[in-house]
Amino acid sequence: MSDIRHSLLRRDALSAAKEVLYHLDIYFSSQLQSAPLPIVDKGPVELLEEFVFQVPKERGAQPKRLNSLQELQLLEIMCSYFQEQTKDSVRQIIFSSLFSPQGNKADDSRMSLLGKLVSMAVAVCRIPVLECAASWLQRTPVVYCVRLARALVDDYCCLVPGSVQTLKQMFSASPRFCCQFITSVTALYDLSSDDLIPPLDLLEMIVNWIFEDSRLILITFLNTPIAANLPIGFLELTPLTGLIRWCVKAPLAYKRKKKPPLANGPITAKVTKDSGGTDRDSHLLYSKLHLSVLQVLMMLQVHLTEKNLYGRLGLILFDHMVPLVEEINRLADELNPLNASQEIELSLDRLAQALQVAMASGALLCTRDDLRTLCSRLPHNNLLQLVISGPVPQSPHAALPPGFYPHIHTPPLGYGAVPAHPAAHPALPTHPGHTFISGMTFPFRPIR
Which of 211, 192, 210, 189 is nearest to 200 (CA)? Predict the structure, then answer.
């Protein structure tokens, strides 16, 4: 590598960057012939940092800066390289060598250039770059993934009105990238503050993607070899947890966002009218998204069983539901219940539905006692009470321990059959079943 470095030092910045890609292409191509997963050692990474990210090797030396035109030319060189390289394994390892965070001073330059490269790939539809970015998102800590998501949202949903149409086209170009993008976006916009509510254009695009083909959000899960224990600090296999957070918190987050109108006559009326229209649009989108999420959850039982993961892998972690419930409780307390009763009711209804379907399909692994403890501090909600206190028949899946929520299509005890003890309580009236999801009924229980 030292000989290559001395050769590159005699070249201008763009020629050196192009040549270092050429040398590393040859280097890793030969490595891949002897090992399917070659280790990226320090030498190639240092060459990339010095001649692509312009981070000087000598301590104390001033970093070089490319002007805007040179940076654009560098992005074109990189886009062309990934487009022309036909071997996916070589593309992936070069992309990883370029953009995997190293925990050093080059990471800021690395992330800045990555955001611009992926943004350019979206604009000119360079699918190989998008596929490499999807793999990068899957194996990179979430703190870096949200930085890439932020860069793309700024470029296509905030800076230029109407540019989101270009990003929408990625649905057919690279569904795998879209799945990872949704996961990182839901990690970025957690609705914890008004600034972290997703822009309306972004929300509409994601909802339409999922509504058009709900399997989109399962692409990573369905095409990835999975261990029972997932790594901590990385993006989840699906965006389901983040999407549930969006649907459940949205009514309360948007209610919190509303501010009392100022007494400025017709201007105030116009602003209030425009804001009301935007709120109506967003509420409809969240309702549509909630329906799609429930439909995906109902599909998961089949996929988990096919992968022999039913009862062994929770795609929605109970530990992630705990902060969600705490946030709902805090928002409900923060908002005046007298002025936000409808929003609180809607939020809790969505939470109850998501929990019930997730547990029934095996996506959320927890006991009814866990759920009761989790939801004990929430405001009263009839639907949520039915979910946490309804009967739980024994699951036909031996992998699930007793007390875990059953397969969604298993009828409850006594459903369509003669009761085991018909005369046990002859004086008590029979209450009708309250249907929540087709095929699953809950007998009436008094609220204690």
Answer: 189
> 234, 142 in Cβ contact below 8 A?
yes
CA distance 182 to 243: 9
pLDDT digits (tens, 9 = 90+) for 168-187: 999 999 999 999 999 999 99
Phi-psi region of 92 (alpha: psi -120 to 50; beta: other; left: phi over 0): alpha
Separation CA 286–CA 401 (nearest Å):
34
The answer to whether residue 265 scores a pLDDT higher than 70 is no
- For 161: left if phi > 0, alpha if psi spans -120 to 50, otherwise beta; the answer is beta
Report which residue type is found at 49.
E
Separation CA 361–CA 364 (nearest Å): 8
Contact 38, 89 (CB under 8 A): no
Closest CA to 179 of 115, 135, 232, 239: 239
Least confident of 184-188, 305-309, 320-324: 305-309
CA distance 256 to 336: 10
